[in-house]
Automatic annotation (TrEMBL), chain A:
Record family assignment: Belongs to the RANBP9/10 family.
CDD domains per record: SPRY_RanBP9_10
SMART domains: CRA, CTLH, LisH, SPRY
Feature: compositional bias, Polar residues: 343-384, 431-457
Domain of life: Eukaryota
Domain B30.2/SPRY: 23-210
Natural source organism: Sander lucioperca (Pike-perch)
Domain (CTLH): residue spans on this chain: 279-336
Biased composition (Low complexity): 389-430
Designated name of the protein: RAN binding protein 10
UniProtKB/TrEMBL annotation, chain B:
Keywords: Cytoplasm, Nucleus, Repeat
Organism: Sander lucioperca
Source taxonomy: Eukaryota, Metazoa, Chordata, Craniata, Vertebrata
Protein name, as recorded: Armadillo repeat-containing protein 8
Spans of repeat ARM: 61-97, 511-553
Principal subcellular localization: cytoplasm
Amino acid sequence: MAELGAGSLSLGDPAFNYQEHELNERLKRLYPAVNEEETPLPRSWSPKDKYSYIGLSQNNLRVHYKGHGKNHKDAASVRATHPIPAACGIYYFEVKIVSKGRDGYMGIGLSAQGVNMNRLPGWDKHSYGYHGDDGHSFCSSGTGQPYGPTFTTGDVIGCCVNLINNTCFYTKNGISLGVAFTDLPPNLYPTVGLQTPGEIVDANFGQQPFVFDIEDYMSEWRAKIHGMIARFPIGERLGEWQSVLQNMVSSYLVHHGYCATATAFARATETIIQEEQTSIKNRQRIQKLVLAGRVGEAIDATQHLYPGLLEHNPNLLFMLKCRQFVEMVNGTDSEVRCLTIRSPKSQDSYPGSPSLSPRHGASNTHLHTGADSPTCSNGVTPPNKSKSHSGTGSSSIKYPSVSSSASSSTSSSPSSVNYSESNSSDSTKSQPHSANSTQETSLSLNFRRNQTHVTRSSNHDSEMEIEAEHYTNGVVEGSSARIMNGTYKHEEILQPDDNSIDEGCTNGRQLCGGNQAATERMIHFGRELQALNEQLGREYGKNATHKKMLQDAFSLLAYSDPWNCPVGQQLDPTQRESLCSALNSAILESQNLPKQPPLMLALGQATECVQLMARVRSGSCSFARVDNFLH
Amino acid sequence: MACLLEAPLRISVLSEVTATSRHYVDRLFDPDPQKVLQGVIDMKNAVIGNNKQKANLIVLGAVPRLLYLLQQSSSSLELRTECAVVLGSLAMGTENNIKSLVDCHIIPALLQGLLCPELIFIEVCLRCLRTVFISPVTPVQLLYTDPTVIPHLMSLLSRSQRTQEYITQIFSHCCKTPEHQTVLFNHGAIQNIAPLLISPSYKVRMQALKCFSVLAYENTQVSMTLVNVLVDGELLSQVFVRMMQRDQPIEMQLTAAKCLTYMCRAGAIRTDDSCVVLKTLPCLVRMCSKEHLLEERVEGAETLAYLMEPDVELQRIASTTDHLVAMLADYFKYPSSVSAITDIKRLDHDLKHAHELRQAAFKLYASLGSNDEDIRKKITETENMMDRIVSGLSESSIKVRLAAVRCLHSLSRSVQQLRTSFHDHAVWRPLMKLLQNAPDEVLVMASSTLCNLLLEFSPSKEPILESGVIELLCSLTQSDSPALRVNGIWALMNMAFQAEQKVKVEIVRSLGTEQLFRLLSDPDSNVLMKTLGLLRNLLSTRPHIDQIMSSHGKQIMQAVTLILEAEHSIEVKEQTLCILANIADGNTAKELIMTNDDMLQKIKYYMGHSNVKLQLAATFCISNLIWNEEDVQAVVNSDCSHKGSQERQDKLREMGFVDILHKLTQASDPNLCDRAKTAMQQYLA
């Protein structure tokens, strides 16, 4: 038998790619709970984990016998590349008998890592098989038990492992033959064994549609598990369960500061809210500021309302400041926002959670009085605004100059793109290309030093770290963000915007709203931030996370279009959410209230529990996914 | 004890209740319609969930008054609706309540009410009708008395989900006969109900599905129509397949499987169709598993037995699916010993279903083992299987006995089982007992099984003979049922095959020649064939032939003549000629033919017949007549045998048989040719 026949598929072959695609799609559909980075699924036979009498071909899917086949000592087996992950819940593969060869002594089954391959599956400890010549099942024993019909050339034999009750059944030509083995150990590999010349079998790990309707079988178990969850006895006294649920809802509303809804809910359900109204409103105000990207104001408000809080949480303060810097780049923070001539509203779009209005003036008009300009209705005083206007002309600090010096050290940096060119549509603000100030040089050095450490994927990592700090209980970022968005939808009313928002979108976003003074302010702020980092480093020791955050934030300046650069995701308004909840939690903690709402805690607990189930090999986790219950 | 003490108390309570009940009825007669309405509403609230109150009101005559108010055109819609609601509530009570309601002609009144344009009123009427019709005490025929009812119900199907649910439920309970199926079919039941299979309401889908299962049952016309029906662009069979998905409610899976089973049995779907092999069959096997309710397991097993009865391939697949054969063994374990101690309620439930479970399992085993030897082996090897059958044969429940004997019959088709397990477990004993006094349907199966047990190679044959079976079988031949007559005579035929003379004499004596000849003129050709077979078996080996012919020769020759002269199938005539050939083989019996010129002419005629089989049998007969090598025993007994053969040869030559034989030596059929040549050689010898 040739190792690779003329008709066999090879990498790069379009048919192969198609098959590969099919395989991935099918595996994803069948085993959605499997994390392949942790526990890869079997996709082919292993060329390393086989006896020498076994030959593989057709992308390691076809197995043929190439030994003498004189007696059982010539038996040979091959295992799949990976063991079956418990998170599959129910796992299935099929083997087609291409040829029964001389005697058809073929065994199909499962075996653990390390089981002798000079044997048919089922003969040894931790090895299980169904044999074609007599139709017997072999459960770690040299003698078989009558199990099913015999099988031969042309038959398709399926093997299904139920990781929920640790049993296994086989199918023949799409018909279930009933349970063959019970009490299976974990981490079994799909295995086939052959014993006489001419025996050839093909495996289907999902490359092709299965003959047996495995999805139908799975649906039964899914329904079973869901039913089990739905009918789980809570065994509490009448009404107690209800009040628990009401508290969950109420505390969630309070936690996120949905003051009116929480009050209405409390009234309807006759429950009591622990926290005072004003306290809830204060938190709500701060949260809205953060979510609107106006981090500076949020910091001020926090310091005002909760003196000492940020002083006791230097890490949080640093994160807030870092975010403030990012928002300056974004043009949303009030310190730069009031400097820009163009409507700052153009920077306010919040695509990640479109239902939320980040604009302060839109929903919280009570926060400030006497807003004199529609574009500056953010509570920043006019004097401040005029001052920054006056500074606009004198300052010629240019970001491109920074980048050009940076580019000399890192050739791959795209920062050499000319700033003014990239904004050519904005004729009113053409910028000089030259960089000349000494201030600027020192900053550029800082930036350059930072930038050398920046890698393309770094921003993702750093964000993961930040989030990990806030979601210690296992709530995944995706789901928490979704819930946030969903609930904000009911709370916030998006203020209709003037057409400036469209204008902003069509013209493209600009650094600090395209304002020079603002840019200057930002650079200055960056230096302060750098200093803060150094100070924190001296007081509390070096903090890798901070360093990373700072690097990522500063890296934004290395690109002409920060919104479309490798670290540009930081600018996404959805990134504010995790910080917002961290700040909220810190405030609550300082008031001796739980920093997490019980609902989120329960959700996180459930999610973590399901992940833990996968790790301790409880297969039902596959059908008990938290996602299935969140609508 | 407690009951006795309570009795007087109950009576006093009853009289009190009756007094309040009377008040409710009296208010129905109030002249003020508003007060009547309030009275009906109060009555409604009083009867909900109170069977005693319901019975009281019925006894006090509330029903006729309510019906009167319901039908009065002067009654307000509200009053009429409330009346129907109360009636519906009364119908929810005991079976006696339903009987009283039906006796008061509630059905025509409510059917009349369906003509009202108001949907709400139609719905309550239908609801009440539904409750009445699903009761086993209501005569189904009442739905079909008025021919306008069915078309009107069909037209109401489009009105609302409620009308859909109630009407389909009425249909599925009232479709009991092929005539009912035809009436519903002719009024467009299929087209009207098919769209309901994808209704958003589960109840509607379920009732529509049930409708199809009763419509399709043993009905080719309906089944053939169903396969071509499209529901929302999808074939009905595919809709059923979807309803069988494993996450669907069991009731739905089971009913959908029934629909496909009936369509398959009616020939509308092939037995090798994937929706049968890969979906319906596995679904029904699943229904047999321990995790389901006892009722579901019974229904699943019965439906599966019905599905695969005629198809050996399905039997083979089912026998390997999910350990079905072993799974069925569990059906015999009710009531379980655990349930008796731990849970009285469960014990009661188990007891109620134990018979049903056993008979369903026997039926399924019977179906599984009806063709394939390997499956039969697998069944008999199941734990205690033969013992279970044996005890099943003597159970009190007729259904179980019948199913057990069916199962035994199915297994008795196996030569190996007859020789081994059947003998080991002496199954003949309970079988004989069963035959003594049983209804016809059981007798048919039991006697059919007995036929197999009496086959020559069966070791049970001897003990059965000794148990006086001949009398019993002879009495069966006098039955009015052709099936029983066939089985009786068949068993006798098997018994006579290569039997001792003693047995043969006993058969002839016990049956009586008169009965034997009555059977030879039986209108059922099967009976005739088996009787001829019996005769032929009786007339084997020379001493037996001569002995029987000497005592009954005249009647037998007469009967043979009659059959050969009458209009009969080739098979019957062939069998008769074979009997003649056997007679010709006797030593003295030969003369009965040789002296009968008419018979010889008949033989001559059949030698020239166009059918080779008849020619062959007739030639065989002549060959025996001219045979000249008598065996030693015969020579001793018959002093003039050789001389006899010479005489016979001469006579036959005179009659022109030699010419015919000569001609037949040229025949195209090799057997006939050989036979004629052998006969000719006798002349040359």
